[in-house]
Design goal:
The chain is α+β, with helices and mostly antiparallel strands and 717 residues long. It has three domains: 269 residues, no CATH class; 277 residues, Spore Coat Polysaccharide Biosynthesis Protein SpsA, Chain A (Alpha-Beta Complex), CATH 3.90.550; 87 residues, Thrombin, subunit H. The chain is built from 23 helices and 16 strands. The longest helix has 31 residues. It is globular, with a radius of gyration of 28 Å. The N and C termini lie far apart (59 Å). The relative contact order is 0.10.
């Protein structure tokens, strides 16, 4: 049997088994004997109650068959998935609003309506996004057409490339400047905008023959830095790269052509990342899961672009100077100067468009502290929208569907405090003796399960395999408390916080646990565990009175159990693993030659950075300590010293001897600047994601325990 079909068959069987298991749990038909559970289930299947499972079976069948026939989105499959999702969403929403609200007394009414409103908040956004997926635009074909005029020389406006910088390490800045210089376009000038006013950066720019602009003060942070550069440059188009973003050589060829259309004011491109985000790295899943922001660039931006509401994301974008000057430069009132500058341009009837093509790559946050700081800045900057004149909900010339798209982006940040509420919900049932949902087991099976499985099974497919649902929830748990506090502070005092740069290029030589971020999660874990055992004891003692009109206590017990599991997995993410090197070792697969002791060997470079490489060689008899690495295609020769041998597996690790500037440029081009080199990674399907998370949990615990045990023994001796 073809391997592809084996995978599909396994997926169907697995989903069926999981569906059956969860159905059993949610219907409360398990007893002291596990076999009794299946006996009761089969008795249901032989009775008229079997019809209760039909919506679930139909939903899974439609979704799975469509995804099997169309692993990648096509218009016909997108229509089927969208209509199926909308049907079960609306069906569930109708049931919740008409049959499940517990309005028997004031307190229950408050909690019941409150929970329902929270669900609405979680449902409305997916409904809006799901509908807009039908209108997603393929701008890659448009880029093909528009780039012809650029390549032929018919349209080649002057371009200023601006690289705002503050405190990034010199090697990070150097990498970006050289990458920009390698862009294939004649009429370009490159400027490093140094808000740190550092002598070593000034010298670097002189060495690289790159423009250098600084200023006496740092007023308005990045926005002020960019506006200062606008007064000292004159290119028709402006490109902005953060100091850690390296473009591919065809960046301008693929983007400049769009500006032949005079309606276009700003073009944002896809942002890839050449380092894993700290959450994936701490879980040991950097090769298995995508970075956290991947879903934004691969899915949300395309959804927003379908209604001309793409977001300027601060780096890797092109803007027309003339139009930018019309709005007095970059907006300075907000921490998200990029977002609000785009809104202001749109209010002048200029289009903000998005090209979903990876033409640059940057550094992810180096640790969870930096990751959270970055998200807090984005959250505050977005919510500040509500308090400045560039508010897209009220500014002139923004159409109503664009307003809805921007409102959706703002409201998404408020899901963090709502996620906290869901972590605490089982406590209201046990401690306060409240029943926020009035429903029978049959209702849960008939209405909730189909809705739930449709959401889970379509989530990754709809977002172009950029994120799985279960991994997404972990990201939400990690950020829930700090983002909730940041949102509250922003609503109270919107402009109190200053712009804080995300630390880049940092190292860490040991394991450590981030207690500051973990403390609130530990508190939530403890109260959920206490509530779990309390609820279990109440069930054993029959202290909770059940009625057919309310969800069974077993469901709340299961909900509580899921809370405990997700919080535990989230805490594992906060075990920071060592990062011994500030350089990024990229996985490549490049055939080379090695000259060692006047002998020529064939080899394959498997990993490389600016200072060294890991190489598979065709010999195990190498005894010399130095040699030359020969890149035949690039006509590049790099002298090296051998650091380590693994002759059994025919591998060596080498350190490059000091590189000339020409050699360095060629290495950067190989590593970062090849067109189409940033291949999109696919997030694992849901069952595999669960397996990977469970595996990561036990491995992380084992490694952390082992390291601490060794440290204690060393300390004793």
């Amino acid at each position: 049997m073809n391997l592809q079909y084996k995978i599909y068959a396994n997926r169907i069987i697995s989903v069926g088994l999981v569906s059956s298991f969860i159905a059993i749990l949610l219907t409360g038909v398990y007893s002291n004997n596990f076999i009794d559970c299946f006996t009761q289930l089969f008795s249901w299947l032989n009775s008229s109650n079997f019809i209760l499972f039909l919506p679930l079976i139909i939903a899974i069948f439609i979704i799975q068959v469509t995804i099997i026939l169309s692993p990648q989105q096509k218009q016909w499959s997108r229509i089927i998935i969208v209509l199926t999702s909308l049907f079960f969403m609306i069906r569930y929403f109708w049931w919740r609003s008409h049959s499940t609200l517990n309005l028997n007394d004031p307190i229950n009414s408050i909690f019941s309506i409150g929970l329902f409103l929270i669900e609405i908040a979680f449902i409305i956004s997916p409904i809006f996004q799901t509908i807009l997926t039908l209108k997603i635009k393929n701008r890659k074909l448009q880029a093909d057409r528009m780039s012809e005029a650029v390549k032929s020389g018919i349209y080649q406006p002057t371009v200023d490339i601006l690289i705002p910088s503050y405190n990034e390490p010199l090697e990070v800045v150097k990498r970006t400047i050289v990458g920009c210089q390698l862009i294939e376009y004649n009429h370009k000038k490159i400027y490093l905008l140094d808000d740190g006013n550092r002598q070593e950066i000034r010298q670097l720019c002189q060495e690289l023959k790159c423009g250098y602009i600084t200023r006496e003060n740092r007023i308005y942070a990045k926005a002020g830095n960019l506006n200062n550069a606008l007064t000292q440059t004159n290119g028709e188009l402006i490109v902005v790269f953060d100091a850690d973003f390296v473009p591919t050589t065809n960046f301008l060829i693929r983007t400049v052509g769009f500006f032949q259309d005079l309606k276009i004011g700003l073009l944002q491109t896809y942002q890839s990342f050449y380092s894993p985000d700290p959450i994936a790295r701490n879980l040991g899943l950097e090769n298995d899961i995508t970075t956290e922001v991947e879903i934004f660039y691969r899915y949300y931006q395309q959804v927003k672009d379908s209604v001309n509401s793409a977001i300027c994301a601060g780096s890797s974008f092109v803007v027309k100077r003339k139009y930018l000057e019309e709005i007095d430069g970059f907006v300075t009132q907000s921490l998200s100067e990029d977002y609000h500058t785009g809104i202001k341009l749109a209010s002048k009837n200029y289009q903000i468009i998005y090209l979903a093509e990876s033409l640059s790559a940057g550094l992810s946050a180096e640790n969870t502290f930096g990751h959270i700081r970055q998200r807090k800045r984005w959250a505050r900057g977005t919510i500040q929208t509500l308090f400045i004149k560039e508010n897209p909900l009220f500014i002139k010339n923004i159409k109503w569907w664009q307003k809805i798209a921007h409102l959706d982006g703002i409201l998404q940040w408020f899901l963090s405090p709502l996620r906290l509420v869901l972590l605490l919900l089982p406590l209201t049932y046990n401690i306060l003796k409240l029943n926020p949902i009035q429903a029978s087991f049959e209702d849960v099976i008939y209405f909730f399960l189909p809705f739930y499985f449709v959401q889970v099974l379509t989530f990754s497919w709809l977002n172009f395999r950029s994120r799985s649902a279960f991994i997404s929830d972990l990201y939400n748990i990690i950020t829930a408390v700090p983002l909730s506090l940041e949102i509250l502070q922003t609503l109270i005092n919107p402009f109190k916080s200053i712009f804080k740069v995300t630390p880049k290029g940092i190292k860490n030589d040991h394991y450590y646990f981030n207690w500051n971020l973990a403390s609130p999660l530990i508190f939530l874990l403890v109260i959920n565990i206490i509530n779990f055992f309390s609820l279990s004891q109440s069930l054993n003692n029959n202290d909770i009175i059940e009625t057919s009109n309310f969800i069974n206590s077993d469901v709340m017990l299961f909900w509580n159990f899921l809370n405990v599991v997700t919080i535990l997995l989230s805490l594992i993410i906060l075990i920071e693993i060592p990062k011994l090197d500030s350089y990024q070792w990229l996985t490549i697969n490049k055939s080379i030659k090695l000259k060692i002791s006047n002998q020529i060997y064939q080899g394959i470079v498997t990993k490389m950075c600016e200072i060294g490489a890991e190489i598979n060689i065709d010999s195990s008899n190498i005894i010399n300590e130095s040699g030359e690495l020969i890149f035949t295609q690039e006509k590049l020769i790099i002298p090296f010293d051998i650091n380590s041998y693994d002759l059994k597996n025919k591998k060596i690790k080498v350190t490059f001897q000091p590189l000339s500037l020409l050699q360095y440029r060629q290495i950067i081009k190989i590593l970062f600047c090849q067109p189409n080199q940033w291949i999109l990674k696919e997030s694992p399907h849901e069952l595999k994601a669960i397996y990977l998370l469970i595996k990561a949990f036990f491995i992380s615990i084992l490694n952390f325990t082992k390291i601490n045990f060794i440290k204690k023994r060393m300390y004793k001796h």
